[in-house]
Amino acid sequence: MPILFEWYKFVGLLVVLCANIQRNSPALRPIAPNQYHVLIGLLSRCARLMLANIALSHEGRFGETTAIIDRCIFESALNVSWLCTNSRDEKFKQYFATSLKVDIEFRDQIESNIKTRGEILPIERRMIHSIEGKIVSSELSEEQIRQSKKMPPVDAIMRELNLDRIHYVVSQKIGSHHVHGTWSSLLFHYLEEENANPLTFRIRDHDCATHINQFMYVCQNVLQALRAYIQYALEDGEESSAFLLLFGATESDIMNIYQEAIAVEDLKRNAEGSS
Description:
The structure is a single chain. By secondary structure, the chain is mainly alpha-helical. Helices cover 75% and strands 4% of the residues. It contains eleven helices and two strands, in the order H-H-H-H-H-H-H-H-H-E-E-H-H. It has a two-stranded antiparallel sheet. Helix 3 (63-84) packs parallel to helix 10 (212-233). The radius of gyration is 22 Å and the shape is globular. 24% of the residues are buried.
C-alpha cells in the first residue's frame, strides 16, 4: 500500500508536467486557445484533486471524502479523453454549452427580476458581469452557445470511448453512492453493525482509510486521459512516443504492485479465517 501511494503521487506529478506544456512549445501542434485552456484546466483539476486526496489519505483517514473526490477526478479525466479522442470543434462547443447555458439561464432570470423591480441591485450587477465574462472567455458568441448541444451523458461518452459497461457502473453509478449519500454509502463509510439479531447499526468512528482500489483505479483513469491528451496535443515524434512509453510503464508497475497487495490481503484473510 505505501508503494502504491507513492505511485499515485507520481501520476499526479505526470499530470502537472503535461498540463504545463506551453502552447509555444515546438512539440505542441497548433491548438485553438479556448480548446487548449479547457484541456490544461481539466488536467490541472485532476492534479489538484489528486493532491487533495494525498493530503487527506496519508494518515489512513478521510476515505469517505477521497471517494467523493475520486468521482470528480474520474469525470474530469473522462472529459479529457472524450475531447481529445476523434476531436472536433463541436465537442468543445458542447463542453462550453453544458456550463454556459446554465449561466445564461441564470442571467436571464436575474434580468427578469430587475425588469420587474425596476432597479438593479449591486449583487445582481456583479453576477451579470461575471457571467458575461465567462461567455467572452469561451471565445464563443452567445448565439453559438444557445445553439450548441450539451455534452452527451456519461454512459454515451464511455460507449464512444469503447469502455465496458462495468467501467461505467463502477466509476459513475457506484461512485454516485459516495456523492449522494445513498444507503450503500452509509453502510460503507458511516455505519457499522452493532447487533446481528435484530440487525442494528451504530455510527462508525472516524477511521475510514482510502481503499487500495481507489489508488489503482484513479491512476488508470488519469493515465488514460494523459494518453489521449498527448496523442491529440503533441506532434508525432520522439516526445510523444517517450510520454506514451512512460505512461504504459507506469500503469504496468502500478498494476503489478496492486496485484501483489491484493495477494497479500487474501493471504491475511485466509489466515484469519483458519484461525
